Amino acid sequence: MKTIRQPISNRLVIVTPGSFPIPSGTSSSVEQVVQKTGEQLVKSMPVVVLGRKVSYQPWKDIRHGVSYQRVPYQGQTAYIKQVGKKISSLSPGIIQVDNRPRFLPFLRKRNPHALISLVLHSTSFITKPYISKSSLTVCLRDADVIIVNSDFLKRFLQKKVPNAAHKMVTHYLGVDVAQFTSKWSDEGIKSRNELRKGLDCEHRKIILYVGRLIPKKGVHHLLKAMKTIIKSEPSAKLVIVGSAFYGSKKVTAYVRKLVKTAKMMPKHVLFIPYVKHQDMPKWVRIADVFAVPSVGNEAFGLVNVEAMATGVPVVATRIGGIQEVVEEGQTGYLVEKDAIETELPARILQLLKDESLQRKMGENGIKRVDNLFTWKRAAEVRSDLYSQMLKATALV
């Protein structure tokens, strides 16, 4: 028998994981997505975002119309209890939980009348070691809707918990097109030239990687590809933006291995530590080709959209949700994971040697983003869903 919810307001309360502060330029992509969608959703409903308290942020503030309220963080269990207390004073119509299915039973027990939305960003928190299949099944019972960011992630979750399949919907992510502007525009060309000059790369052909330096991101494959690329294109330079952890310069054994490999090509590889998200557009503009050599199950891959919005062609692995973002032969190329050692350098070289193809694919990418992947569009889809859910309970 279907449970009938009776929310007492149309207020949306978003529960962030608590791993990073929000808003913050050094947080994970989850917090970035919450911030950007919240700023759009607040135009159609009151939005409160709950997150962890850090020393440099107040307990409460309002930014772009969104109310941010913070609680102490002393581990996940203590955090969700503090969040629960906050929610009891907010009378939400909808509670949106981002990427933490384990929070659902606790929140459902204390908010029986509210609608609960689970928003999943990756496979990380719906698989072991975070959660077992049986525990996940129990947790998902308490969600009224489960929002995923790709059809790949929806199929993945449906296979794990088939009895929750009817609750799942795909909502693509977006990009701030006012920030990630075309590298081919007058402003883009000026920004691109300034940073390239500062890096002493004015006459180099730049391959850009942006992301965490961990094995599943496949950076080692990209470095191996560079050995082939520079033989055919001596002016090529790989710029690697990122570190092993969000907002941290901590060096791991894997990072040391990458640096050791790069030292074999000292004039062709440059490491840039973690860059704040607000500074990322200028870095993307310097690229001739954007490389995403992931070998893990990427649910979406927001960096692909950011590159496309900037007019940079993407060469990425044909895995997970990436193949829903990058249009093969139109906005870039998709290489097979099993053939990455030959296809990755070949596709990158093909683009490096043909500026007209770079521009054609880059401009195709801009159009694709404008049609499918803006925060405005993402928020409209989310707002429509929430409005329909509230309407079903006569609260609109």
Protein described:
Helices cover 39% and strands 17% of the residues. With 396 residues, the protein is an alpha/beta fold. It folds into 2 domains: 12-174 and 375-391, 3-Layer(aba) Sandwich (Rossmann fold), CATH 3.40.50; 186-372, Glycogen Phosphorylase B (Rossmann fold, 3-Layer(aba) Sandwich), CATH 3.40.50.2000. The protein has an 8-stranded mixed beta sheet with strand order 3-4-2-1-5-6-7-8, sandwiched between helices. The protein has a 6-stranded parallel beta sheet with strand order 11-10-9-12-13-14, sandwiched between helices. Strand 3 (60-63) and strand 4 form a beta hairpin. Helix 7 (219-232) crosses helix 12 (340-352). The longest helix has 18 residues, at 355-372. It is elongated, with a radius of gyration of 22 Å. It comes from Paenibacillus qinlingensis. Pfam families: Glycos_transf_1. Residues 196-368 form the Glycosyl transferase family domain. InterPro entries: Glyco_trans_1, Glycosyltransferase_grp1. Keywords: Capsid protein, Virion.
What is the N-to-C succession of helices and strands? EHEEEHEHEHEHEHEHEHEHEHEHEHHH
Radius of gyration: 22 Å
Instruction: State the fourth-level CATH superfamily of the largest domain.
Output: Glycogen Phosphorylase B
Structural class: alpha/beta
CATH class of the largest domain: Alpha Beta
* Lateral strand order in the biggest sheet: 3-4-2-1-5-6-7-8
Number of folding domains? 2
Q: Termini distance?
A: 25 Å
Number of beta strands: 14
Mean pLDDT value: 95
Shape, please? elongated
Which CATH architecture of the largest domain would you pick? 3-Layer(aba) Sandwich
Residue runs with pLDDT of under 50 for 5 or more positions: none
Proportion of residues in β-strands: 15-25%
> Largest sheet, if any?
8 strands, mixed
> What name is given to the CATH topology of the largest domain?
Rossmann fold
| Tally of individual helices | 14
